[in-house]
Amino acid sequence: MFLSELLAVASACCVALSAMVVGELKGRIALLRLARWQLTAAFLMTAALSVALGGWRGLGQREVLLLAGSSLFGIMLASTTYYAAIYSAGPRVTALLFSVTSPFALGLGYLFLGETIRPVQGLGVACVLGGVVLALAPARTSGGPSFRPSRAGLALGVATALGQALGNLFARPAMAAGVEPFTAMAVRSGLAAAFFLLLAAFPFARDPAPFRVRDLGWAVTASLFGTVLGMSLLMAALATGQVGIVSTLSSMAPIAILPMVWLRTGVRPALTAWLGAGLAIAGTGLVSLG
């Protein structure tokens, strides 16, 4: 397996683990406080790595503007809906809905870049949607009750996928120009952290819950795996690998998260969850490689 493929698979595993950690904070940290903590921690870590590697020297005005657009859609908007989706629907469902990013990216390429949609890619979209429906169909898990995610959770998950697709659309030219991955994430997370810190000046964004060091530790851990490692590995994979293959392998979080959920809860996910996640990943492969 080539380096870019390994990086993409590692990115998917990191994102899945981060979602599990965020799920542990439900009911303990308000959404906007979580975003502030995670993105500030992500900026500090990626900026330090970028300075150590000298990545800032390869950053031009065009790349900064592209990464700013990627930050707006892929982090400021998508991160907010992502955390909200985990709180509402759980990490497994959120990771599954994240696979809809690929059909969204295909549609955006068609609308804004003039790309054509091949029949095999249309089949891939059908597989992704079919896999999501199959995995989310009410089914009784082994040793547990049946589960039906809320409509709000589903909507938030789909919004996250759309935001991520838009973020990737902006990030791709910057990464192709040779921007160092940690530097790209420092710009993206730094702009997003500044946004959420400024937002804290408004009363509606304040969290009256008491500060707990343990909660901060969980939030920083989730940021380390999700934003710092997961997204930086994805940026590195996009810089060296074929977009279709990288997009497919980095979307394996719905598969990677199932054994994590099993270990955490002691309840084996239903067979439809495994089959649906696999079908969604196969569909992503058809979309990306087609």
Task: Sum this structure up briefly.
By secondary structure, the protein is mainly alpha-helical.
> Which descriptor suits the 3D outline?
globular
Mean pLDDT: 84
H/E order of the elements?
Answer: HHHHHHHHHHHH
The tally of beta strands, per DSSP, is 0
Helix and strand content put the structural class at mainly alpha
Beta-strand residue percentage: under 5%
The total of helices stands at 12
- pLDDT < 50 stretches: none
The end-to-end distance, rounded to whole angstroms, is 20 Å
Fraction in helix: over 70%
Biggest beta sheet attributes: none
The rounded Rg comes to: 18 Å
Description:
The model has no long low-confidence stretch (mean pLDDT 84). The chain is mostly helical. The chain is globular, with a radius of gyration of 18 Å. It has helices at residues 3-23, 31-53, 61-89, 91-97, 101-112, 119-136, 151-176, 181-199, 213-240, 243-250, 253-265, 271-289. The protein contains 12 helices and no strands. Helix 4 crosses helix 7 (151-176).
Summarize this structure as a short list of keywords or feature phrases:
290 residues; single chain; 77% helix
